[in-house]
Amino acid sequence: MYPHLGHAEAYPVPVAPAQGVSKSPSQPYFPPFSGHPHRRPGQWLTGLCHCFDDPANCFITCFCPCITFGQIAEIVNKGSSSCAASGAIYGLLLGFTGFACLYSCFYRSKMRGQYDLEEAPCVDCLVHFCCETCALCQEYRELKKRGYDMGIGWQANVERAQSRGITTPPVMVGTMLR
Fold it and tell me: Mean per-residue pLDDT for 78-89?
């Protein structure tokens, strides 16, 4: 992808916690992705219509979007809901109401908040209402480019990060006065 960066762009840099600071073993710290040197902060790593950058995911999302949505939801929820449960809810909403896009746009908003991404090309609900499969593919690619292995789920990603020495972020105790 970026030959001058090698494979380092796909793996977060380990961050050691400050001395005396507690850390949560269930949530590793994935530092903000720096990506391409000419990319401005808050910009998505791939465009909405770049679905064919990952043809396998594009195929799966076109024919069974509940799988892609479940994988995204598990990572965005940091393992508090499983891929299967989120995918099943999405599938039921899609089958009975046809408006699973209202459910999935919530996760796009949540993901944007986690990674400080801009609301582009338009508001999240419109992106999901007009281009549901493209939006899901973009979110999938975004998480994948940030170092997550989407096929193994949250817990396996946590264990993988910990085996590489990536730790949790420092937790502030008390209030800062200055």
Answer: 93
Dihedral angle of Cα 141, 145, 146, 150, to the nearest 10 degrees: 60
Structure-block tokens of residue 139: 């979110």
Distance (Å, whole) CA 1 – CA 77: 28
- The model's pLDDT over 21-40, given as tens digits with 9 standing for 90+, comes to 444 445 554 544 445 555 56
Q: Which two tokens stand for residue 174?
A: 């008390």
How far apart are alpha carbons 1 and 30 in whole angstroms?
20
Query: Which residue matches tokens 């999240």?
Result: 124
DSSP secondary structure of 82-135: -HHHHHHHHHHHHHHTS-HHHHHHHHHHHHHHHHT----SS-HHHHHHH-HHHH
Predicted pLDDT of residue 43 = 83
Residue type, 56: A
Question: Measured between alpha carbons, how far is 50 from 141 in angstroms, rounded to an integer?
Answer: 9
d(CA 102, CA 86): 14
Residue 20, Ramachandran bin (φ over 0: left; ψ between -120 and 50: alpha; else beta): left
Decide if pLDDT at 122 tops 90. Answer: no
CB 27, CB 157: distance < 8 Å = no
* Contact predicate 90/70, CB 8 Å: yes
Does position 173 have pLDDT exceeding 70, yes or no? no
